[in-house]
From TrEMBL:
Chain segments annotated as transmembrane: none
Domain spans labelled HTH tetR-type: 18-78
Protein's name in the database: TetR family transcriptional regulator
InterPro entries found in the cross-reference section: Homeodomain-like_sf, HTH-type_TetR-like_transc_reg, HTH_TetR
DNA-binding region, residue intervals: 41-60
A Pfam family recorded for this sequence: TetR_N
Origin superkingdom: Bacteria
Keyword Transmembrane helix among record annotations: no
Keywords: DNA-binding, Transcription, Transcription regulation
Native source species: Colwellia marinimaniae
Length: 210
């Protein structure tokens, strides 16, 4: 039976153990960047980090638990960016001003690297992982829905969730495209992605039926 991706075998308590876990996670990022999602195996992670498979298995029952941890960290950073932006003071800004501020907060998270694309690919191709990360994705969608509500959207919860999922899908497509483009083309893709996202947000806020 495959162990649940959301669990860990052992939570590190000592600094040395925490360093080992971090080394495993950082090594997995390196593998994703240099060799892609298909290269993620416990053996390859052990090879690139110098951490023995036995030590890895003390903390992660399988590679899925490692990938889930990485993806969870990235999503939680994005949720944190939304929460930093979503203050009463910032909600007094116009929607355009708030969106610009939110974009700056999310840019600090740094989504869009080659390894992010490969990690997302690994998640999407594994049904167990897709199911496991859904609660964290829902939390991220809820952050955007909250913003839309604060700016007056009267869409149903179902329609807003679908919109939020679509907007984040557009964002993912944008950075998946950018990593294969020249710097000039990538800059245009960023601008077009942001323009489309803002258009969709305005559509919901301005009460246009979905």
């Amino acid at each position: 039976m495959i162990e649940n991706p959301t669990s860990k075998r052992k939570a590190p308590s000592q600094q040395r153990a925490k360093s080992t876990v971090r080394k495993v996670l950082d090594g997995t990022w390196q593998l994703l960047k240099e060799q892609g999602a298909d290269a993620i195996t416990t053996r390859n992670i052990a090879k690139i980090t110098g951490v023995s498979p036995g030590s890895i298995y003390q903390y992660f029952g399988n590679k899925e638990q490692i990938l889930f941890t990485l993806y969870g960290e990235r999503l939680k950073d994005s949720v944190g960016a939304f929460k930093l932006a979503s203050t009463e003071e910032n909600f007094s800004l116009s929607l355009a001003e708030f969106y610009q501020l939110l974009e700056q907060k999310l840019a600090n998270v740094g989504w869009g690297r080659v390894e992010d694309v490969e990690l997302t690919k690994a998640i999407a191709e594994n049904p167990q992982l897709k199911h496991a990360v859904q609660p964290i994705l829902n939390e991220l969608y809820d952050c955007l829905i909250y913003v839309l509500r604060r700016y007056g959207s009267t869409w149903s919860e179902e329609d807003l969730k679908h919109l939020a999922e679509y907007i984040f899908g557009v964002n993912h497509f944008g950075y998946s495209l950018r990593i294969r483009q020249s710097e000039q083309s990538a800059t245009k893709t960023i601008a077009l992605t942001r323009e489309l996202e803002y258009y969709l947000i305005c559509k919901a806020v301005n009460k246009v039926s979905p």
